[in-house]
Amino acid sequence: MDSSNDEAVDIIITNVVATFRTRCHLNLRTIALEGTNVIYKPEVGKVLMKLRKPRITASIWSSGKIICTGATSEDEAKLGARRLARCLQKLGFKVNFSAFKVVNVLAVCSMPFSIHLIDFTKNNRPIASYEPELHPAATYRIKNLKATIQVFSTGSLTVTGPNVQNVATAVEQVYPLLFECRKPLCKQDKKM
Amino acid sequence: MPRRNTRCPGCGSSNIVNDNLYCQAQQVCADCGTVVSEGSLAQDPYNGPEISYSRTTVVKKKPCVNLIQGMERVKEMSRLLRVRKEVEELSLTYYRQAYEHKTFLNVTLQRKEILGGCCVLASCRQQRWPITLNTVSYLLNDDPAVVGEVYHEMIKVLNIQAPAFSVTDVMEAHCQEYKINPGHVPDELAEESRVLTKRAVALVELAADSWIVTGRHPLPIMMAAVYLAWQSLKPNPQRLKMSLEKFCRLGKVQKIKVAGPRITEMKGMLCKLGKEIPWYKQVLTPDNVVSLVGDILQHRYSLLRRAMKAHELSLLEKCPVNSPPAETPSSEVTEDAGQTPATSSVNAENEAGDKDESPKSPSELSDPQAQGSTQNWGKRVLFAPPCVVNPKKKKTERPALHVSEDDHISDSEIDSYIRTPQEARDFAVMQTMLKEQNKV
């Protein structure tokens, strides 16, 4: 069987999580008072700030560490982070944008066939694990890519990995394994 | 004997004698009584091998108390589940091995108890003794997610393989729970366990083909299958009128809420299949389909084929030119009809219908777009999972931002995120007012 797909499978990135540091202490009360679109959580010790242009939510800690979530690409995450740093600069803090790192990327994609999960798990033990009573999807962890793929029997896939390249490679790696265990869209005599 | 070379540090005299204090050698000045020097009490250096404290003081090597208690608990659980002797022994072996491993050696006692339950589960699965993870978590009185986590860790540590059960394997054990044997209830409502199991298993297999079982908890499906099987074995008005709740009370089992929707789904599937029965001319509704369940199950394969073909024909009629159905379903149908020539009289009609259709499928050559086909395949096929039939509305796609590294972020844009000094003052005043209001 040809391992390269004839029909391109669309991988849609739904979330990119990135962190960076401002290398200066941040006064959360000031940010909460003078910033719009902020939510102050004193019990946890952080401020949530939401940006409109790249739709991003940032968790700001007083140590200067900031986590940005909600971007749909790595570049968008970087732009949002820089915009946030500029915003904090305007508020009066001596911000130094440093240590930007994309920590996690979440993507979904859909196979053009449905998958027989029990066969898939049997062929790929112990990398794949499937516990139908706990979760309807089989989990496939690729160690060297540090990626986790959740395979649903409808053919949908959810992939998480440290960056976009790893996520794409993971989907490429798992495609032939899924293709082996596919079931036709209208099954007649085959069991689940 | 007086030493000649040393002098007493106190008085300076050289009159020093050996005057032993019991067994300690001492040299004393005879004039002033100062102790000039003294020997050590025990002078033999020990040159032998090092002996550790625990080895020299140990009385007898005993296994850890918690390990013994854990093994007793594993034995208890095995006896509660009434498993075979081999299963019990295997679970005890696994428990001993896992307990000694560093992953489980220093965990809480509660986790060690869960480990015991997981060992029982793993050995039951290996010896093909059907129990579910939910049964084990019920025994341990713990969250199934935590039990699942410990189970995965244990499997990794012990490096064993324990194949999971499908719903049909566990069906028999589940059916035996229902107390509706001829001795327990009146004859019109009683049913032999074996007969009930057989029909319920057939129903579950049929449900599996129509995406009712995939990805769902097994227990509500089993309960729905048993209920429908019981009703259909003797479809008298008394049984048909009895609701699920009353049936559970009759069989002395606890009703599961989700079993209701499963019953509805199963009845919907049975209606779709029952429509294809050639000798039943009346209109099928979920109410009167129960009496036909026996016939449907007997001819289920051929009915499935007929239903799918009828569905394809109806799709072709609706849109004959654009968006044709994919070739794979129709080609699958033709293959199957060729492989199983005559299982029932109904099939002869199928083959005649097939030959009419097969020349049509090659003509529809245009490939459907990959995305379109995956998203709409719920509509094209007779049975599909609910998430495909009713897909979530896709959020309007955000326009992709064109980002460049040297993008100048305009001041006005940033200012929109910052309050003016007046706004900040107003905000602070409002907050203090709110606080005072809350205090009052």
Automatic annotation (TrEMBL), chain A:
GO biological process: DNA-templated transcription initiation; embryo development ending in birth or egg hatching; transcription by RNA polymerase II
This protein's name: TATA box-binding protein-like 1
Superkingdom as given in the UniProt entry: Eukaryota
GO molecular function: DNA binding
Family, per entry: Belongs to the TBP family.
InterPro entries registered for this protein in UniProt: TBP, TBP-like, TBP_dom_sf
Keyword hit for DNA-binding: yes
KW DNA-binding (keyword) present: yes
Keyword entries, A-Z: Cytoplasm, DNA-binding, Nucleus, Transcription, Transcription regulation
SUPFAM superfamilies referenced in this protein's UniProt entry, alphabetically: TATA-box binding protein-like (SSF55945)
Cellular compartment(s): Cytoplasm; Nucleus
An example Gene Ontology CC term for this record: cytoplasm
Automatic annotation (TrEMBL), chain B:
Alphabetical UniProt keywords: Activator, Metal-binding, Nucleus, Repeat, Transcription, Transcription regulation, Zinc, Zinc-finger
Gene3D superfamilies according to UniProt: 2.20.25.10, Cyclin-like (1.10.472.10)
Localization per record: Nucleus
Gene Ontology MF, one: TBP-class protein binding
GO cellular component, one term: nucleus
Superkingdom assignment: Eukaryota
Region (Disordered): 319-414
Residue ranges, compositional bias (Basic and acidic residues): 397-411
Domain TFIIB-type per the UniProt entry, residue ranges: 1-37
GO terms under biological process: transcription preinitiation complex assembly
Segments of skewed composition (Polar residues): 360-377
PANTHER family membership: TRANSCRIPTION FACTOR IIIB 50 KDA SUBUNIT (PTHR11618:SF5), TRANSCRIPTION INITIATION FACTOR IIB-RELATED (PTHR11618)
Function field: General activator of RNA polymerase III transcription. Factor exclusively required for RNA polymerase III transcription of genes with promoter elements upstream of the initiation sites. Contributes to the regulation of gene expression; functions as activator in the absence of oxidative stress. Down-regulates expression of target genes in response to oxidative stress. Overexpression protects cells against apoptosis in response to oxidative stress.
Similarity comment: Belongs to the TFIIB family.
Protein name: Transcription factor IIIB 50 kDa subunit
